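SAMPLE LOG
Freezer: B-3
Tube label: C17
Construct: single chain, 580 aa
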Amino acid sequence: MQAVLRYLLLFLAVVSVAVPAHSGKKDVDFSSDSRKAEVLYMEALVKRVEGDNASFYDLIERAYRLDPDNSIIAYYYGYALLMFDNQSVSKVDEGLRLMKSHFLAHPGDFYENYLYALVCNQTGKKDEAISVWEKLLSMDRGKVQIYPLLADGYASKGDFKKAIAAYDSLERSEGRSSAISVRKIGYMFAINDTASALAEGRSLLKEAPRNFSYNMLMGDVFLQLSNADSAMVYYDKAQKIDPENGYVSLSKANVYSMEGDSLNYEREINSAIVNKNIDVDVKIRILTNYIRKCIEENDSSARVDNMFKVVIGQHPHESDILKLYCDYLTFKRDYKNAAEQLSYALDINPTDVKSWERLMWLYIYIDEPRMAIEAGEKALSYNPDELSVYQIMATAYYQVEDYEKSLEVYKSLLEKNKEMHIVNESDIYSGMAEVYNKLGDTHTAFEYYEMAIELSPNNYLALNNYAYSLCISGGDLEKAERMSKLAVEADPENVSYLDTYAWICFLKREYKQALEYIERAMSENGDADPSAEMYEHYGDILFMNGDPEGALREWKKAVELNPDSEILKRKVKNKTYFYE
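STRUCTURE (predicted):
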């Protein structure tokens, strides 16, 4: 709300420079304080136009303290109280009270009172806003900008008949238009006056039967009444009047969607999307809904890619369209091309930090961590304080096995985060623990895991990784099992967590339970390729459950992914398990 008020009141300040100061009293008091207040008031308005809000507030407050009876100064002091975020309720109420006092004393001051009504409307004081707008119109019926606001005010109170009457008054002043009729018809439907809605549309067509907008509106009225056949008649008429207008295709698509005619829906929606005459914002909204529908129906056909290529060709500099294409490609698991489209979007809008973060994760997912690092460096050149970028970069350096650099980035992130508190500190400690593990400093790694879990006992990634580290270092298996079990219970479909728990069971010689959890892990992994480590675990567990053939099968898969492992090669060669 405060941001909206500032936007409205900026206009007020600009306009008010041309408004002469007056005291609000019949006889102007030329005492010293009054004159000083007038000077401070004018200086304050200049500062406001310059964007110096702090000076504006200071000057107008001083003016008000010198002459609190000056109505216009009190008004702007009230306005100043509404400018800032996180203002107390009492200050907001005082600001509105001072602005209202000016309205009551000077109802003819149009701009001040017009903006006062807007402020009331934004702060939920609908009745007061309506009262002010009604008063302003009673003084000058020619202020046509008030009628739509007044109509919306009436509608917000559920008084749709008065809302319609307000638009009738506007029509008498400005003439008829489809835009006004759309609002009136909407209010008519709100009170179930379908006869008036139809009459409104027909009266427009009687005046101009070949008007494109009027035919479209009539079609929309019938569609609202679920009369698809009649709606299509008017849409067809509109299309004959303006064959190149893509909005007809969009309306027809709505009809076919209502009827469940997917074939014709696809034809019309595609025609609308590739139409050059549809506004890009509308096209983005259509694409967003269309992509959502494709994802829900698991549709990854080539025609969607072709449609995007046409639209991108029409609007090559619209980053939102490129990001939508990235969304669709991500759904198709075409992560490489998704990253490419997102990189094009960032060429257009390089300050979009969330897209940089997403691009970095895409690069990591397709095993291009160096490209993630490069993207992170670019992101930080535009947003040097975006701590989440540092976090992803630390992960990327870890993946390229530059552990010293990863640790350096984590330490820098930790220092910056102490001031800004943006990143979960527990996650930072957990990441640093992983790095220390790779550097062979198990003792320090365990210390950082402990700090991570102490800060956030529900950091399940830290619990899982700590548990696995204990396993492979010959640590406390009971402690490892407790932590791993918490992680699995919190996320029972997490492949890594299931694998860890299975391996703990294996080390505890609970082979049947180990088999249950490793098979759950393999099942949850779906179409993704397991790691060499996971294949090896599966093979070892199968062997200990009396399935040497199954074990050999999994060990061979592990060797393909990790051909340098001597222990794996021995297992395959000798077809037996070897203790490490």
